[in-house]
Amino acid sequence: MGLSGLDIFKKLPKTNCKECNFPTCLAFAMKLAAGQASLDDCPYVTDEVRAELAEASAPPIRGVTVGVGDEAFKVGEELVLFRHEKTFFNPAVLSVVVSDDMDDAKVDELLKQVNECEHERVGVILKVGAVTVKSASGDAGKFKALIEKVKDATKKPMILMSEDVDVMKAGVEAAGDSRPLLYAATEANADAMGALAKEKDLPLAAKAADLDKLAELSDKLTGMGLKDLILDPAPRQAGQTFKDLVALRRAALNEKFVAFGYPTITFPCEETDDELYETALAGMYTCKYGGIVNLSHAEAWRMYPLLVLGLNIYTDPQRPMAVDSKFYEIGTPDENSPVLVTTNFSLTYFIVSGEIEGSKIPAWLGVVDVDGQSVLTAWAAGKFVPEVIAKFINTSGIADKVKHRKLVIPGYVAQISGELEEELPDWEIVIGTREAADIPSFLRQLSS
Fold first, then answer.
1. Binning pLDDT at 50, 70 and 90, where does residue 1 land?
2. Where are the alpha helices (DSSP H) in 53-120?
3. What is the pLDDT of residue 57?
4. Which CATH number does the domain housing residue 47 bear?
5. Pairwise CA distance, residues 62 & 313, whole Å
6. What are the backbone angles phi and psi of residue 131, rounded to the nearest 5°?
7. Choice among 12-21, 40-49, 177-186 with the minimum mean pLDDT
8. Nearest to 20 by CA among 361, 446, 8
9. Is 320 inside any structural domain?
10. Could you write out the DSSP letters of every residue in 35-52?
11. Are residues 384 and 271 in the same domain?
């Protein structure tokens, strides 16, 4: 159980210096106890006290890293039940299951889907996060061969799936230094599987029939010195899985129940044979509160909406997504290409740039820093206004790149055109379209 705010306050320097961005040491202590502040924010806490307060300052749900290199992922480290309270941090990871009882063609197809599943959305690359390698045959040789096949085909982190410790040992040997997640320790094999995970310093999933047994198993494994655990309540019934995931999150955050202070893993692919229902379950577990979500396939029709859902859920609701403020070259613009301007809200930029690309007319797209707000919102907030736009144009260097002096502004802010011409007397202000879908025809007409 973590320390209370008052317990933490007693150990702080009590200077009320405000350098932690809180008005008093007591306020800072209360936020620290709630997991909403970092001990590093206090510049005067001693190393001795820092060590004492490590438990209170650590996230109530431990962060666990699987894999190595650029493809490694982390799950956990969540602080809240609802994203509007603060934010969610480490997105749910989608993993595709391949099994050693599948024929080679099926495995090749699934691995091809995994590698080809990559989409760009508002500047973020969305992709499958892992491959779950399942030993359905119980044959260590087949399991090892499949792991080697997966390693050759993709750099994705692996989840090794077997409850037979001897089979798992063969799998760990084949996985080498790729830091796979071992799935799973159970009541029956906890001692041997825990010892293997500890010896190899690998993350371990714990699986139990109900939450009471899962708590006992978690305590046993942590008692063995294991820290990187992932929990699976394993009812394999959609309604009960959802209830268990919520109960685990509430217990960890609200009750500070240490045994449940770990990320989770789910298997919608084992809860139904209906592909549409499986995808719907995966969406539900992405929202609440699956850390790793296992699927039977990685076709675009199911993965793209799930990946976008994860992006939306795990985007900080208090910080709009923004792109860098500068001029972007759409296509290969030259000195005669049109010049357009918009805001740095990511969605606005990617919609507008996409329509410009679709027009096949190269253009210069200027993005004004308005703290990541859309055109109308930024205008209403006094951020996308003539003096700001003019300053951007004058300091961007765009005048040296084009011969003409025509600047296209969004149709939704046509009312600023007169003032903008006063701020930019050398430029002709052209009122563009209100809707992005009309940009291609507008550009063709403008260039004719």
1. very low
2. 54-57, 104-116
3. 64
4. 1.10.15.40
5. 20
6. -125, 125
7. 40-49
8. 8
9. no
10. TSS-GGG-TT--HHHHHH
11. no
Q: Is 25 annotated as a binding residue?
A: yes
| C-alpha–C-alpha distance, residues 45 and 299, integer Å | 52
Q: What is the pLDDT of residue 50?
A: 83
Is 237 annotated to bind a ligand? Reply is: no
Q: Does residue 162 register a pLDDT over 50?
A: yes
The verdict on whether residue 381 carries a ligand-binding annotation is no
Give mean pLDDT, residues 254-270. 96
- 21 and 81 fall within a common domain: no
Q: Using alpha carbons, select from 347, 277, 313 the residue that is nearest to residue 93.
A: 313
372 among annotated binding-site residues:
yes
Domain that holds residue 53: 5-57
On the CB side of 184, CA atoms within 13 Å amount to: 20
Is residue 342 annotated as involved in ligand binding? yes
309 & 283 share domain: yes
Dist. CA 162–CA 26, nearest whole Å: 49
> Would the annotation count 375 as a binding residue?
yes
Structure tokens at 107: 């495995």
Q: Does 347 score more than 90 pLDDT?
A: no
Structurally, the chain folds into a number of domains equal to 3
273 and 387 together in one domain? no
Inform me whether the pLDDT recorded for 313 exceeds 60: yes
Q: How far apart are CA 149 and CA 158, in angstroms?
A: 12
**Helices 140-153, 104-116: inter-axial angle, 10-degree rounding:** 30
